[in-house]
């Protein structure tokens, strides 16, 4: 009986494959009906011989084809893809049974069958058209809306991006599986697709990634198990929990500026020390360095930011080394002399990345549209009291017109009068003409042009004019 079943089923699967190949080219009601008949027959005969797993999978395929032939699901190529995948798994199950394959192989194939069955079930639920009922009723929420807006007491918030495999036959069922996993352990706060995605008004196959924000009591390490779903190639999880983001808080209170001003002054002084040459430091200068060190230490005790604390630890280590160097014999530590400048530059780089756009250093990125008008607007909004250096990145520009150069000179003169130094960043092969323009006016107006933000900061520290402008403003801020 089993042998007869296997032979008949193999013939029917071959006929089913021929139907699907024709359906890939064009729709045919006759082929849909034939596929339905084959699935129904294999379902019944499989249950008769005790192959329940094969029968269950064919039952799901039969249900999908029945919906397609009666019009409750619109026919699309996703149906053909799911049929191909389902029948391919069926062939593998039958081959494994015929050859009495190992339990491990059969378990793997059974898991694949379960996966495709779940995908078909979700596909039907998502795409099935409801019958028109002549009763006036409130519209029910869409699929995404049904998950959103639920109360949450989760302690953690995560932003998660899902990347789909290229060969996924239908993405909407995978999205639903993701939402079901969210519902198991938390609440959906945001979805990058809305209800329209499931209404048939959008191109589902163009969705390469899917993004959500969830609230949950589950820790990040556990999330990977929930989202290890079929057709999801990889995920990226960003922890948005308040406890994780607190270190990025930026205060607009002026009382917070003092620490950064003192650090700026200390970094400028440290950078100007050249240990490769004989350095004579007066008692007054040494006392000033000690004062800066103590001031940084006192002010830092008021902060509770791990990033700032880490920076201040490194600063204190270098500053204490240099004070010790000047207090002792000139050859006290050759290691300090050889690595000193690199350590200071790394410290300045750390400080720049943390304060960029927030304190001390303002940053403006030019684009091709309305460069000068946007820059004027930015300068008008910029906090001129707490800003000492303004970096203007012109790397996106390919040309700088004469009227823009004149306007840039005017803006520089205006903000230098406020004690703010301008640095120009021009990086990339396309800015060669921009650099040539600044070179051509150097004898009249000397703009410092650098390849990076860090280089621009260091040039400001090295320039005597910039150093004096910044130093004077520091005194004005500190002592009014």
What can you tell me about this protein's structure?
It is elongated and about 105 Å long. Strands 2-3-1-4 form a 4-stranded antiparallel sheet. It is built from 18 helices and 8 strands. About 2% of the residues have low confidence. With 480 residues, the protein is of the alpha/beta class.
Number of discrete helical segments: 18
Average pLDDT number: 81
Share of β-strand residues? 5-15%
Q: Terminal Cα separation, in Å?
A: 100 Å
| Major sheet characteristics | 4 strands, antiparallel
Please estimate the helix content.
Answer: 55-70%
Number of strands: 8
List the helices and strands and how they pair.
Layout (H helix, E strand, L loop, with lengths): L1 H24 L3 H21 L2 H19 L6 H23 L3 H25 L15 H5 L8 E9 L6 H15 E6 L17 E8 L3 H7 L5 E8 L2 H4 L11 H15 L11 H18 L5 H22 L6 H22 L4 E6 L5 H11 L5 E7 L8 H15 L4 E5 L6 H9 L8 E2 L2 H10 L1 H16 L1
Parallel strand pairs: 5-6, 6-7, 7-8
Antiparallel strand pairs: 1-3, 1-4, 2-3
Helix pairs in contact: 1-2, 1-4, 2-3, 3-4, 3-5, 4-5, 5-7, 10-11, 10-13, 10-18, 11-12, 12-13, 13-17, 14-15
């Amino acid at each position: 009986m089993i042998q007869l079943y296997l032979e008949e089923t193999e013939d029917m699967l071959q006929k089913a494959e021929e139907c699907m190949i024709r359906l890939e080219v064009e729709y045919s009601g006759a082929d849909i009906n034939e596929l339905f008949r084959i699935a129904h027959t294999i379902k019944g005969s499989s249950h008769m011989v005790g192959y329940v797993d094969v029968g269950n999978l064919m039952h799901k395929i039969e249900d999908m084809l029945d919906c397609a032939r009666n019009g409750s699901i619109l026919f699309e190529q996703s149906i053909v893809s799911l049929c191909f995948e389902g029948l391919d798994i069926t062939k593998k199950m039958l081959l494994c049974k015929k050859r009495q394959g190992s339990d491990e192989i059969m378990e793997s194939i059974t898991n694949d069958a379960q996966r495709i069955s779940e995908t078909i079930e979700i596909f039907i639920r998502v795409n099935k058209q409801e019958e028109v009922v002549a009763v006036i009723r409130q519209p029910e929420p869409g699929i995404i809306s049904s998950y959103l807006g639920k109360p949450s007491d989760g302690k953690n918030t995560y932003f998660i991006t899902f990347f789909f495999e290229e060969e996924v036959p239908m993405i909407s069922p995978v999205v639903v599986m993701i939402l079901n996993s969210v519902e198991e352990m938390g609440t959906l706060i945001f979805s990058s697709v809305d209800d329209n995605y499931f209404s048939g008004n959008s191109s589902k196959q163009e969705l390469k990634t899917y993004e959500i924000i969830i609230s949950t009591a589950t820790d990040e390490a556990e999330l990977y198990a929930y989202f290890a779903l079929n057709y999801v190639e990889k995920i990226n999880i960003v922890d948005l929990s308040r406890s994780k983001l607190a270190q990025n808080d930026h205060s607009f209170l002026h009382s917070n500026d003092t620490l950064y001003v003192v650090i700026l002054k200390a970094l400028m002084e440290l950078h100007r020390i050249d240990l490769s040459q004989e350095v004579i430091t007066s008692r007054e200068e040494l006392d000033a360095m000690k004062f800066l060190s103590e001031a940084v230490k006192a002010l830092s005790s008021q902060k509770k930011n791990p990033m700032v604390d880490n920076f201040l630890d490194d600063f204190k280590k270098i500053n204490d080394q240099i004070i010790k160097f000047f207090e002792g014999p000139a050859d006290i530590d050759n290691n300090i002399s050889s690595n000193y400048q690199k350590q200071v530059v790394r410290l300045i780089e750390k400080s720049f990345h943390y304060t960029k756009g927030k304190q001390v250093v303002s940053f403006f990125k030019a684009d091709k549209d309305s460069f000068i008008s946007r820059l004027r607007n930015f300068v008008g909004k910029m906090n001129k009291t707490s800003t000492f250096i303004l970096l203007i990145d012109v790397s996106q520009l390919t040309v700088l017109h004469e009227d823009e150069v004149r306007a840039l000179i005017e803006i520089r003169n205006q903000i230098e009068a406020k004690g703010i130094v301008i640095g120009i960043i021009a990086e990339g092969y396309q800015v060669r003409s921009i650099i040539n323009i600044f070179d051509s006016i150097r004898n009249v107006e000397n703009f410092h042009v650098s390849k990076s933000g860090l280089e621009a900061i260091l040039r400001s520290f090295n320039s005597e004019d910039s150093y004096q402008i910044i130093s004077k403003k520091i005194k004005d801020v500190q002592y009014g």
